[in-house]
Backbone:
């Protein structure tokens, strides 16, 4: 053992001397070559030995693990960035050394600070030139073969890397839209017992509604046998001059124009939303509001492009945006317009939904400036409305922020122009018209407050004119008998009181017209024998009138299916309802909580009460 120990120490010293430094300079490492070319079968690898060269190359091989002492990686990765490396060799060394390395998606227009900047003495330019020459020599023969294939517009999978060098402009098809991007890097991924894939990492431009941002989009191409036409690939190189590039650039200009802030536009296509099993479309031809900030706020669970998402369509693997940091930028340079996203987030006033809209379907609105002038209305009322909406009138309420809105109540039968009036005003002001039905506001106090608050908030942001149609239920006098309705009315009025915009309310119709409408619907036009002039004095709303007419019809047709309703029968129903005031107050004679079965029960109960009354009258007459 004593004899063998010196031999072991000598072997350990020899091993140690392989990496031993005799000083602090990298050039003093006892390895003469700055890099090694290694082969494993048909695969070629590069092993970087010089630390300065390693640190420099790390800035070009984004995502590769080059933090080992002597990192090893496929040689084709350097071939993909060879044009950039040749520029460094050919240019002045100082310009190259001052380069900030790309380390991922950054705030638009801002180079992200590198973790360590290259100093002038961190690598030897001759080492880099030697590495570039080795890569060119290694791929010289193969490049000739690839160029011949490309000249014939075909490529094989193992030569696919030649098409996607760093900085190459490409395009693909996703959800029916062409998408432009710039290649960051492309790598092969090998899977045992499965087909291989090429992952192409690209850079695109998107927006969060406040700034323009760089993002990364990843595409995949699955291995195939033989050769394939380049134009049939999922991702295709984009020529410098081509109709597709021109199309992408023009769309990019529209993106840059509409992505920041809200924009009121005309849409000629459909809206779409991503759902867990695919995409769903909505008819949205008409007016839309592009507003990314409001979309994110109202749809917090929607997977927008500024968050990571994935899809297998057209080889699209995923998308992610950078963290929001750095200097805000509001513009896009001309050469990068082709990289802009193909769609924007917004709201369709036709579909009454939020979703994504293709930029190609968006255009400026051609407003009808004569709409208000053509509106047939009492000139005095018309002039008053015009003066109110056009003036810079401010509320005189003592509480700041309260009473500054302009609210109109429109009433009348269908067809007299209530909705048309609101539409004409919105056209006159070049503002969106947000048409809301009572059904959209919900039936509970919580739903009403939540939904109406949301509508009023976005309407204020968009400077929109609001139209709440058939708002009768919210305009009734509050009473002691119906706490539920009182709560709805109170919440409704409180929210409107603080709204600062223009808002139109419409009522069903004047009470007399409501009676005629429901009587004509049940009896037939102009056939009823009811004294409406007498009945209209009763303080009933539209739903109550509707219920009374239906009950009266059931009573009239008890013995004769063809019998018409009489005034006496209607008054009988009203008298009975009054005698059961507490019960009817609870039900409110409204159809909101009364389905057909409940209505049938109510009719039967009323019939029984009438039969009892008739029996009492008959008994009294016989007694007398």
Residues:
């Amino acid at each position: 053992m004593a004899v063998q120990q010196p031999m072991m120490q000598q072997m350990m010293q020899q091993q140690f001397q392989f990496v031993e430094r005799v000083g602090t300079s990298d050039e003093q490492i006892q390895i003469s070559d700055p890099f090694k070319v290694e082969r494993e079968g048909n695969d070629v690898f590069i092993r970087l030995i010089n630390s300065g060269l390693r640190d420099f190359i790390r800035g070009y091989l984004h995502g590769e693990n080059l933090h080992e002492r002597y990192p090893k990686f496929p040689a084709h990765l350097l071939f993909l960035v060879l044009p950039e490396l040749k520029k460094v060799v050919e240019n002045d060394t100082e310009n190259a050394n001052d380069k900030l390395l790309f380390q991922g998606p950054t705030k638009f227009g801002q180079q992200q600070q590198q973790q360590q900047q290259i100093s002038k003495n961190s690598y030897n330019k001759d080492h880099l030139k030697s590495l570039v020459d080795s890569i060119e020599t290694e791929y010289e023969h193969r490049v000739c073969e690839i160029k011949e294939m490309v000249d014939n517009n075909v490529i094989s999978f193992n030569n696919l890397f030649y098409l996607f060098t760093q900085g190459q402009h490409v395009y693909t098809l996703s959800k029916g839209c062409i998408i432009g991007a710039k290649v960051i890097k492309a790598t092969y991924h090998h899977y045992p017992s499965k087909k291989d894939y090429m992952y192409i990492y690209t850079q695109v431009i998107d927006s969060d509604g406040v700034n323009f941002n760089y993002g990364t989009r990843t595409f995949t191409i699955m291995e195939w046998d033989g050769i394939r036409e380049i134009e049939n690939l999922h991702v295709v190189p984009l020529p410098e001059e081509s109709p597709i590039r021109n199309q992408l650039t023009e769309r990019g200009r529209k993106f840059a124009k509409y992505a920041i802030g809200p924009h009121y536009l005309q849409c000629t296509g459909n809206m779409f939303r991503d759902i867990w099993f695919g995409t769903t479309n909505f008819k949205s031809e008409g007016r839309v509001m592009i507003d990314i900030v409001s979309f994110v706020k109202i749809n917090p669970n929607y997977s927008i492009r500024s968050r990571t998402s994935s899809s297998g369509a057209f080889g699209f693997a995923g998308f992610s945006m950078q963290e929001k940091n750095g200097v805000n930028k509001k513009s896009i340079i001309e050469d990068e317009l082709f990289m802009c996203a193909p769609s924007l987030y917004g709201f369709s006033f036709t579909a009454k939904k939020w979703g994504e809209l293709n930029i190609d379907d968006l255009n400026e609105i051609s407003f009808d400036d004569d709409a208000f002038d053509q509106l047939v209305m009492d000139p005095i009322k018309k002039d008053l409305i015009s003066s109110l909406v056009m003036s810079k009138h401010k509320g005189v309420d003592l509480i700041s922020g309260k009473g500054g809105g302009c609210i109109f109540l429109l009433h009348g039968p269908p067809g007299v122009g209530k909705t048309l009036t609101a539409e004409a005003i919105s056209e006159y002001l070049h503002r969106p018209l947000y048409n809301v039905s009572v059904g959209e506001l919900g039936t509970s106090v919580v739903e009403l407050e939540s939904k109406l608050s949301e509508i009023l908030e976005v309407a204020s942001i968009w400077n929109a004119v609001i139209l709440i149609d058939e708002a009768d239920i919210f305009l009734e006098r509050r009473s002691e008998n119906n706490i539920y309705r009182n709560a709805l009315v109170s919440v409704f009025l409180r929210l409107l009181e603080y709204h600062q915009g223009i808002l139109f309310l419409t009522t069903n119709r004047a009470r007399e017209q409501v009676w005629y409408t429901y009587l004509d619907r049940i009896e037939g036009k102009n056939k009823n024998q009811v004294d409406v002039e007498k009945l209209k004095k009763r303080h009933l709303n539209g739903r109550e009138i509707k219920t009374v007419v239906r009950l009266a019809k059931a009573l009239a047709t008890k013995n004769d299916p063809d019998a018409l309703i009489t005034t006496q029968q209607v008054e009988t129903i009203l008298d009975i309802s009054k005698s059961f005031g507490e019960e009817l107050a609870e039900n409110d004679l409204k159809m909101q909580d009364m389905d057909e079965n409940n209505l049938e029960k109510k009719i039967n109960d009323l019939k029984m009460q009438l039969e009892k009354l008739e029996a009492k009258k008959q008994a009294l007459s016989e007694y007398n």
In short: DSSP finds 18 helices and 22 strands in the chain.
